[in-house]
Structures are given as C-alpha cells and as structure tokens.
Amino acid sequence: MAIEIERKFLLRDDSWRKSATAGIPIKQGYLIGAKQASVRVRLQGEKANLNIKSMTLGVTRQEYEYSIPREDALELLTTLCTQPIIEKTRYRVTYAGSEWEIDVFEGENAGLVVAEIELTDENESFERPPWLGREVSQEPRYYNTCLAKHPYKAWD
C-alpha cells in the first residue's frame, strides 16, 4: 500500500523565495471526489499523472500515482474534470536538511500560498523555517479537492 505522510502550513512571508528552485507550473483537475477517495489528473511541466488519494482527514493518507500520456491529461482536464481546475506554481526549498514544496496558487485560488513537507513517520521531527506560519494539515478547506469545489477567492 502506498502511504503519503504530509503536513501543510501557511506562510508568514515571502523570504522562502531567496532559496527556492525555479517554479514548475501545475494544472490539476478532479474526475471524482467521493467520500473514500479523490481521482485527480495532474499536468506538471511536461509530466502527466493520474492520482488516487484517500479522503482521510489528517496527515497520513493512501496515495497511488500513475504516469499517463500528456495529451490524455490535457483532454481530461478540459473535458471531464470539475471546473475550475487547480492552477499553481510549485517551488522547492531545502531548509535544515528537509525539502519543502511551496505552492503559489493562481486563477480562482490566487492569493493562497502553502508549504508542504513529506515525512516518513507522523511523529518525525523537523526544523521549522522562519517563514513557516500556522499548520493547516487538519483543515479540509486547504485540500486541493476542496479548493476545486470552493475556491479561495470565494472564502469570507
């Protein structure tokens, strides 16, 4: 079984940008958002994937990912995925030996910026960068599946 352990945070400021890699544009859409799992199509640069992730609340979830042809992903995003699709640019930052992914959202979710760290154990310790803000791992509205249905621009 494939397991993902991921913690998600808001950011205090943009100081992370000083040590970030070049951003990679991502477009992703959801084919199914059932109670048990979501099925997502992601176009990340030139790569395309189909992803199945359990809808478990928390930092640990089942996740399966499969490569698909780029042309198939483009077609799925425009014809079968729930609109609006998620648009973001992903940056990577290494801090104190840990790799962080920073997602800067665009489109209907413009203004939202989150940092994620993948861990090997729920209790794994890591050093918090000074630009890291409040943890939102337990808040479903920050999950991409929720952002596709309830975009950040529509939040109060």
Task: Return the CATH topology.
Answer: Hypothetical Protein Pfu-838710-001
Under CATH, the homologous superfamily reads: Hypothetical Protein Pfu-838710-001
> From the structure provided, what is the oligomeric state, counting identical versus distinct chains?
single chain
Biggest β-sheet description: 8 strands, antiparallel, barrel
**Portion of residues in helices?**
10-25%
Low-confidence spans: none
Highest-level CATH class: Mainly Beta
State the total count of DSSP E strands. Answer: 9
Summing up helix and strand content along with how strands pair, one would put the structural category as mainly beta
Judging by the overall fold, what is the CATH architecture? Answer: Beta Barrel
Sheet with most strands: strand arrangement: 1-5-4-3-2-6-7-8
How much of the sequence lies in strands comes to over 45%
H/E series:
EEEEEHEEEEH
Radius of gyration: 15 Å
Instruction: Average the pLDDT over all residues and give the rounded result.
Output: 93
How many separate domains? 1
| Overall morphology | globular
